[in-house]
Design goal:
This protein has 8 helices and no strands. With 170 residues, it is mostly helical.
């Protein structure tokens, strides 16, 4: 049962990444464009954290921002400058799912930084937790619950030819 849950969660998480684009791409132009767009967006977003009061008053948020910024900039320098062919070769060697998760870590880092900012600003950790769940509920929690119900919920059996259909006059 536990391996099935883990596999289901991994499949769900891969849906939130570039995995489908990576897997279906032939020339990797689209993967390179998506990669550069995501890393550039993350870098710009994290740099903006330093211009608001939150980063000046909370060392943990500033540290988290710097760490994810460092990760985004190094990914951008390491993978963003490759040709599509070189990028494809590296991704094929690494594995499509591994690379998709590596890139998704930037998005996850942004969410963590925002959550840390909410905790830093709220006087009550209970209130901060409630606010975070309200914010991520429609985008992460509800789809995850629906996915889990579909994956592990009761299966509706379709009648087979041997069983026939009950209640149908012949």
């Amino acid at each position: 049962m536990i391996p099935e849950v883990v596999q289901t969660l991994v499949r769900f998480l891969l849906q939130l990444t570039l995995y489908d684009i990576i897997r279906s791409s032939r020339d990797f132009e689209d993967v390179k464009a998506a990669l550069n767009e995501r890393t550039t967006w993350t870098i710009d977003l994290l740099r903006s954290v330093f211009s608001i009061r939150l980063a000046n008053g909370s060392y943990s948020v500033t540290l988290c921002s710097l760490l994810v910024l460092l990760m985004a900039e190094s990914m951008h320098l390491h993978y963003g400058r490759l040709t599509p062919g070189e990028l494809k070769e590296r991704v094929d060697n690494m594995g499509h799912a591994t690379f998709a998760i590596l890139i998704a870590m930037l998005d996850f880092g942004v969410v963590v930084i925002r959550a840390a900012g909410i905790f830093a600003l709220c006087r009550s950790s209970w209130l901060a937790t409630c606010l975070i769940f309200v914010c991520v509920g429609p985008t992460i929690i509800v789809p995850l619950l629906i996915y889990l119900v579909k994956s592990f919920g009761p299966r509706i059996r379709q009648p087979t030819i041997e069983q026939g259909e009950e209640g149908v006059a012949e």
